[in-house]
Amino acid sequence: MDRVLVxxxxxxxxxYDNLGISNADAFDLYNQGLLVEWDWLKMDxxxxxxxxxxITDEKMRNLCIGTPLMKGIKQCLDWIIDSGHEVxxxxxxxxxxxxxxxxxxxxxxxWRRRWGGINRHRGCDSKFHVFTNGWxxxxxxxxxxxGRYQVQMNGKGAIVKMLQRRLGIPKERTISIGDSxxxxxxxxxxxxxICFNPWDEKPVAVxxxxxxxxxxxxxxxxIKQQIME
Length: 229
Description:
Helix content is about 40%, strand content about 20%. The chain has 9 helices and 8 strands. Helix 8 links the parallel strand 6 and strand 7 (about 190-195). The radius of gyration is 17 Å and the shape is globular.
């Protein structure tokens, strides 16, 4: 999602920017191998709560409003959905932005709790499958110290494999799009892997195709070509 559907370094960073804070210390520790992802998530939430001690679930959601979306996102997703294909967001990014994108494509099914479902709705479910990280809230609406941790940085491939089994979609009909080394697991489970707007060169070496623009219409053309072959 981040740097692919969202035209920003990350959805977490967008919230930090709105609060005027930085998670550089935790980011550096993680990159040095001194911090595991679960503790990184807790440190980031502690940072947010330190900047805004009484922060609530509603306030966190409001901080996500206005997250910039990638150019061409609507045309790209419209074509994929209208053509009858399944779409999954698998991201370490924040759940609220993923939910907003997923809610752009409501299904005719009433909302229910499900694996890969959205956690807040508008009376109906989404056609998307959503797996993200983020925050959890207490019964009084305030943010908990422990976060929502659905996606491991290097575990996205496992989610793709589970989706393939549940939806009856083989690897030969799977396309994945990502920008960083954390997406390599998805790439390895897909017939077509597209490194879009790459964060660094690590995923470029694994992906079957690299698109260095910031326009999802370029991704759409690659998808169309793959499907029509």
